[in-house]
Structure formats: structure tokens, C-alpha cells
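**Fold in C-alpha cells:**
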Amino acid sequence: MSDDEDVPTIKKGRTVHYGSLEEKLQAEKNVGSSIKAGVEAGNINVSEEYMDIEDELSRDKQLVLEEFERRKRARQINVSTDDVEVKTDLRQLGEPICLFGEGPADRRERLRHILARLGEDAIKMKKKEEEEQQQREKQQENTTWYHEGTGLLKKVRYWIADYSIPRANERLIKAREEMKMSESQKNARRQEIQRRMRNMNIYCSQIGDTRPLSYCEFSPNGKMLVTGSWSGLCKLWTVPDCKLIRTLRGHNHQVGAIVFHPKATVGLSDEGCCMASCAADGTVKLWNLTSDEPIADIEGHAPHRVARLAYHPSGRFLATCCFDNSWRFWDLEAREEVLHQEGHSRPVYDIDFHPDGSLAGTGGMDAFGRLWDLRTGRCIMFMEGHLKPVLSINFAPSGYHVATGSQDNSAKIWDIRQRTCLYTIPAHTNIISKVMFEKTHGEYLLTASYDNMLKIWAPPAWSPLKTMSGHDGKVMGMDVSPDGQIVASVSFDRTFKLWMQE
């Protein structure tokens, strides 16, 4: 008989003994001595363990009561009648959403019993745990990693500090002088600039290549314009008559950007390194103004795409944005890479330098912007607010404003001093490909978009001044001449246009 089976109880009646009492006592004594002898001999084992039948019965009774209470709680739990929501809740709890032969009603009943066992707020707790896990993963993605640099990097940081501090002093002196100007003078200058921008119209339009144009930039003296194309060709044009000067052949893939050296055409020899360009195959090439062929290559990016590049204001350094989630800092004098900076969780798309040369701003496909102090290597500002990748970033001449443009069709104005977003401009109905401040005083902001238009915005309320429409395709890029008189734009329609006041 097993332990689980019920043991029947037998009611003993009264026993009547016949015979002598001495004989009965002697028989019981003999039985007791026989048992004792068997135990001593090892033939009889007496266990010290015992099972109280009443305790076992009370335990079974308690289990039955608990099951009864659980079913009572299950009947009181409200479960959605929508089968989709029931399956979602089951998946949230880590349970199979469907069992063999199970219908919607059986599924609801199963969910009800699971919630009765785990607790009615089990789904909420599970969701809270998942949100906390996502938050931890997000914090890990936004973590900035620092690595030990080379001895050359330390020298470069000191050099940048010596270069940027005097320029910052000059900028502050100019800012103090402007503060002394009367409000009437400031308003008059602002109104004149805004009046001129309202009269901006197409001055000329030129077919630039057989494939879409991706980038353009004015030379520092404002007399030339360089364009890059998806065909891999870069071309130099005269301004404002748009005559072809030279075709630069070197890239075999789509050109991402081509930029002028800050001192090209205004102090640097035409034989020197006057331009730099990058392409989708990871190639970066350096050009002069006299040859059709590149004078040097910068290797180390392939096979990753290089989206944009920019010269440091000193002209000594070149920064490149790579699709391996990093940006590089190259010393053109030492002819080597001095910094390989990680920090974005997705590819870095655009980069720009502070007018003083002390900071670098990057925009990434992770929808974030970052400001880096080149003198210390630290990320000093994290720009969070865009919903989609940041495709363009630009510093204002004032030095304390930054503009970003994103695939979420908006542009944002950030204040470095307060480390916050000042204004969000719902600028376009499609992707913003480029944002740029006016280069002298920052009196207006230009935005270019895939909705085929360029727009001009006036601070401090960032109200629209002018909408420039004329392209038949996406506006891929734009630039403002150094004197602010001409705006150039390149488009998917294979043309570039110059905009001037009538």
C-alpha cells in the first residue's frame, strides 16, 4: 500500500479475555522480549520517522482551498475580448500564443488563469521591465568612448588651442563692438539684408553633368564654383557667367562632397593642395587648381562610404565622415591620421568646424548631433531632438549658434552656451539636405530640401523670408558666396543654379 492511498480505520470492539490473568501478562511479556531481541539482532528495523495522517489531510485541504481561491480570482480578472490583444498579452508574458486545438475562448481562459497565478499587474510589470531594458541599451548606445591617443595627437591638441584662443578673442572684440551699435543701426542693416534676400531670383541655370549633382561650394574669393556629381566627376565653373574651367577626373563612384581649402585663391598657391573630395567607395582625393588629376590620395576609409568632409579653419587639418560610425581627423602636414573618433551609433554623415577652430560638430544617421572639443577630445554637447537622421550641421559666425537639418523635414537652432534647442523650424515637406547660415553676420539661415525648394529664414523668430523654387528635382546641396550676394544650388535634375537679387 502506498503512502498516497487512504488508510482505512478499523474500530476495535471490547476484547474479552478468557483464562488466567497471569498467563495473559506472561504472553505479552514474551512478545515484547521477542520484538526487542529481533531489533537487537537487526532483523527488525524501527524508523524514527512518522507521518501524522491528520497533518497530511490538512495539507491537502489547504491546497484545495488555494486552488479554489485562485479560480475565484481568475473569475474576477477582466480579460480583453479582442483575440489579437489576448495573443499580444500572452506573448508579453512569454507564453505560447496558441495551443493545439485552442480557440479564442479557451485562449482567454488560459490568459485569465495565468494572470491569476502571476498577478493581475504581471503584464504591466513586464512592459516596465522591457522599457527599462531599452533605456539601458539606449544609454549604452549614447556612451562616448575614449581611447588613448598618440603623441602626435597631443601636439595637435596644443596647436589647436594656440590657434583658436586668439581667434576667439578677436571674435569677442567684434561682438563687443557690435553691442555698442545702436538698435537703429542694427535694424537698418538687418532690414537691408532681408530686403535683398526677398528679391533673390534665378540669375542663371546650367547643366552640370549627365548624372545628378550632389555638392557645390564657392571658392574663398567667390570667383569660382566647384560641383560634384554622381558620375564621379568634379567640375570648376566661373562665377557668375557659369563657364566650365576644368573637369576633375579621379573618382569612379558618386562624389559625396568637394571643398576648397580656406586659403585657396586668397593666399595659397594654385599648385598647392587647394581642394579635397570624397566618394561613396571610400576614396578621398586632394586636388590643385592647375591639374585635372588628383595630386594625392588619403587612404584608410575603404570599403566604407565617406559622406562629407571639411577643412579645419587653419587649413592644416581635414575631417572626414565615414560610414563605419566614426569620423577621422587628418594632419595634412604630417600626412597621417591623428584622430579616429567614435561616438555615434550609426554612420556619421556631416561635419562642420567652429569659426574659432576649437570645436567640431557632427551629425549622424542615429538622429543625434554632437559637439566635440578638439583641444580636449571630449563631447561637450549632445544634441537630441530630431526624429530621423541628421544630414547637415553648420555653425553660425557668432560662434554660439548651431543649425541642424534632418530627414524629419525640420531644422533646429541650438545654443551652445545654454546647451539647449532654441527653436525648431518645420521648414519643408521633405528631407532637408543642407542648412547654412549667412557667412558674415549670420543674419539669415538657408535650408535646401528634397521638396525641390530652398528657403530663407530670418532670426530671431526664424520667420520665412523667401521661398526659392525652380529646380525640377531634389535639391542635393547649396552654398552661399563669401560676400553673401550669391546663392548656388545643385539638384537631382543635373543642373546647378545661381540666385541673385534682381
Notes: The two ends are 110 Å apart (CA to CA). The mean pLDDT is 86. Residues 344 and 390 are 11 Å apart (CA to CA). The first strand starts at residue 200 and ends at 207.
